[in-house]
TrEMBL record, chain A:
Residues 700-797 form the MrpA C-terminal/MbhE domain. Pfam families: MbhD (PF13244), MbhE (PF20501), MnhB (PF04039), Proton_antipo_M (PF00361), Proton_antipo_N (PF00662). The keyword Chloroplast does not apply. This is Monovalent cation/H+ antiporter subunit A. Residues 130-408 form the NADH:quinone oxidoreductase/Mrp antiporter transmembrane domain. The chain crosses the membrane at residues 6-24, 31-51, 80-100, 112-129, 135-155, 167-189, 209-234, 246-268, 274-295, 302-320, 371-394, 465-487, 507-528, 579-599, 611-631, 638-656, 662-683, 703-724, 762-780, 818-841, 847-864, 885-908, 928-951. The keyword Transmembrane helix applies. InterPro entries: CPA3_Na-H_Antiporter_A (IPR050616), MnhB (IPR007182), MrpA/MnhA1/PhaAB (IPR005663), MrpA_C/MbhD (IPR025383), MrpA_C/MbhE (IPR046806), ND/Mrp_TM (IPR001750), Proton_antipo_N (IPR001516). It is a multi-pass membrane protein. It is found in: Cell membrane; Membrane. Residues 822-944 form the Na+/H+ antiporter MnhB subunit-related protein domain.
UniProtKB/TrEMBL annotation, chain B:
InterPro entries: CPA3_antiporter_subunitC, NUOK/Mnh_C1-like. Gene3D superfamilies: 1.10.287.3510. It is found in: Cell membrane. Signal peptide: none annotated. The keyword Protease does not apply. The lineage of its organism: Bacteria, Pseudomonadati, Pseudomonadota, Alphaproteobacteria, Hyphomicrobiales. The chain crosses the membrane at residues 6-21, 28-53, 73-96. It is a multi-pass membrane protein. Belongs to the CPA3 antiporters (TC 2.A.63) subunit C family. This is Na+/H+ antiporter subunit C. Keywords: Cell membrane, Membrane, Transmembrane, Transmembrane helix. It comes from the Bacteria. It comes from Mycoplana rhizolycopersici.
Amino acid sequence: MPEYLLLLLLVLPFAGSLAIASLLRTAARTLPSWLAGGVALLATILTASYYPSVTNGKVVRYEIAWLPELGLNFTLRLDGFAWLFTMLVTAIGFLVVLYARYYMSAEDPIPRFFSFLLAFMGAMLGVVLSGNIILLSIFWELTSIFSFLLIGYWYHNANARDGARMALTITGIGGFCLLVGFLLIGHIVGSYDLDRVLASGDIIREHPLYLPALVLILIGALTKSAQFPFHFWLPNAMAAPTPVSAYLHSATMVKAGVFLLVRLWPALSGTFEWFWLVGFAGISTLLLGAYFAIFQRDLKGLLAYSTISHLGLITTLLSLGSPLAAVAAIFHMVNHATFKASLFMAAGIIDHETGTRDMQKLSGLFRYLPYTASLAMVACAAMAGVPLLNGFLSKEMFFAEAVETHADSILDQALPYIATLAGAFSVAYSIRFIHTVFFGPPPTDLPKPHPHEPPRWMRFPVESLVFACLIVGIVPGLSIGPFLHTAVLSVLGPETPYYSLAVWHGFNLPLVMSIVAMLGGAALYFALHNYLARCEDGPPIFRHLRGQRIFERILVTVSWKWARWLETNIGTRRLQPQLRIVAVVAFLAAFLPLHLSGFDAKLPPVRGVDPAFVMLWIIGMLSALAAAFLAKYHRFAALLLIGGSGIVTCVTFAWLSAPDLAITQLLVEIVTTVLLLLGLRWLPKRLDKIDESATFSARLRRLRDFAIAVACGVGMSILAYTVMTLPVPDTIANFFLERAYSEGGGRNVVNVILVDFRGFDTMGEIAVLGIVALTVFALLRRFRPATESIGLPEQQRIQNAYDDAQPERNKGDTVRDYLFVPSVVMQWLFPVVITFAIYLFMRGHDLPGGGFAAGITMAIAFLLQYLAGGTRWAEDRLRILPLRWIAFGLLIAAATGAGSWFFGYPFLTSHSQYLTLPLIGKVPTASALLFDLGVFSLVVGATVLILIAIAHQSIRTYRVKAAPKTEDA
Amino acid sequence: MEFILSLGIGVMTGSGVWLILRPRTYQVIIGLSLLSYAVNLFIFGVGGLKVNAPAVLQDGVDISAYTDPVPQALVLTAIVIGFATTALFLVVLLAARGLTGTDHVDGREQP
């Protein structure tokens, strides 16, 4: 089998999920299930055909470079153990899809269900197949997310929402810890590659960071596998549809935790810490889970706690650190998946047929569902560990390992007794399941009074799984034997011990323990029988101590009480204090380091002062100060004044040999002014009010702000002066200056940097520009202006009143008359400005100009037409489609960048040469020119879109609610 | 030259900071514009000031004669992006004025 098919195996479920998601809005019922079933079946077949490639410890690897600089590769890796698990995920996945096809009712949105289920399958396959631990943790998170979506599938149900949220919180925290743990492991080993990690067990175990890494990884694994003390999310997740429980909470997702423990077993296990941490969690879960399971009233609750207990058994086995125990753990994973999935499905059938899962209501169903009952009984017997069924074999192996001494300690010595006790509990709850549900008097008050056998194909998945339990239980060596051996060999390698899967090992201690557990469990059940028929839900004593309650208490404390405390004590929703903090922090960030490093503000003497430059900046500074003074009440004046500062800035750029900046600044200054002017139309006048500064506190506040402003200004001056008078060191500038012509093919270095050397940055910037323009556009679509400004502005009203008063004049004549000459000039300028834009664009690579400047010029050309004739006039004659300009710009920029791939160069590599055109002569044509065309087009589109969107507000009709009030104002 | 420019940068910064700490949205937008002038000039000035330097590459001119193109490239995009953010802020400002009926930055008058 070629290794690239591994990628197909991984992509297949996700692709299927997307395909089904496209049916979300349709009422399709059969198509999604066929698709999902087809995908699952195909994946199963694909996996099965990989078997010859993984036997005898062989590994299939598929690798794509992902972030090789960080040592991260997209590595897929299939060995015997992963194969076994992949088989479980895909095959049980197929059966679950088949089952769900009949289980889901007509009212449920079927495509959503199957879409999530397939996506979950994909995530699970990702966890199993990852050959890189970072990749593994990404898929690990995906399983958490899709399990959240699946548990919350019936989101109209509050229990489902709570259960989903709890599962996500717990497994999400675990996933985060896992990632940190993996980063530590990667730090220790020096690689995230799974093979390297597995081969470096000794280095990891001796490293001082071993314990933190171990604890973090264990938190990840134990939360996922619902191990004590994180077990409580699993019973709450039972609010999910039963196919989800059968798949996620028995066969796959909760197994991911123990899967990981097995996977990392060669790297992490065998230490004292491992034994204690894993062993403690495993043994307490094993015992508590089984004990709790006895006292559940809900069928699925019983199965959930039983799952917890069985996962505890697997964890316990893994804690022992002996190879034989690892074999038993792997074996039990498979066995548990088969019998538990079938039991969940049987519980689903019972729920489906009777309408309840309450064991105090269910009774005597054998007469109605004889066939399902028989299947459930066999599966239950496997769960209890009855001989000739698969559960018996792995349980015997567990008992045998429990008797062995591993790490000499109280925990180890107590293990045989604990194991027998847990065995007895599991027998008790298995008998309870069968006895209460299927035997006894006929049920009396079922929600659906006439249960009957489910459809043929709904039973089929249960049949196949139970059949597997039987086959494995009776002839283990011929059925599961070789596959198990392959899996074990891939985990343990040369350490693989001798083990026997025979049903009969002679009359030995484990068998005695089994018999004790059977008899004890049966006795326990019949002793508790009457109590269980009437008792409240949950085990005695413990039912008051609920993990869920504790979890919620913690969550409320952290996310509500603490958060609120923080918000009220150190937070504010007011903008002014926030900005004040920003300003002060910015000041200190510059001041403190300089002060601490002994910066001496001995400034070099002032030299070379040009009087014209002084005059220029006196104007600039006065404009800035006046704008600051007037911005509150005299907005228009303030706008003109900052325009003055802007022009001074622009002249400064020109003066100091930066023509590109000067051009761009000038053009942007024009559009900014127009923009703010358009905005002022919608900002009602601020009338002079009584001066608030009368109060002392307000005056103090102003004084403080003034001090901050002065400090920032003075600091900035000193800083700027110091920096500018320092001798300029050798900077990266030389690199660009030397190579701009030889490698970028342009003489205008600034432009070459923008479109060539740092083209990727520019690409990001134009994308931002496009996004901002679209945001402005979107915000204005539902724009509701201030009520005071809905009516016509004062000037228009005066003009209209004048026009109305004169009988020979029409409305709008005045404005037309007095702008007549300028508007004709502006209309005539249209082609001129466009030509100028093209000129700026073409010369950009060698002379000042370029895409940005040309784009804004072009936008101004359009803008002038709007100014000259008004919005309606302009749009009758000119259809500008700014969105297309934006899209075209982005596309061409990206395409130019991607074009260099075809020639085998990295993204955005440019090529330049001179092209001789008739009449015009030699024209430099670099591929960067195309990129610049993208910049140009985007800048045009974005600028025009923003301005037009605002200008358009004037011709919209608003529902005027408060219009009369405007007249008074 | 440097002295005047840095003085100018300082005044613009001071005016800008003063304005962004004011309670009216329009004051903030004007303040941000002034701050962006100051910051652009500062970044530009870091590359060193040169009068009458050749603007584009010419044959036979030593590299040290040119101005530093890197800050210029940075500032050039900053100018354009500055326009876009001003536009965005303006629209938010107008929408807030329409929705809240006040031009206070917090959407309601502070007592």
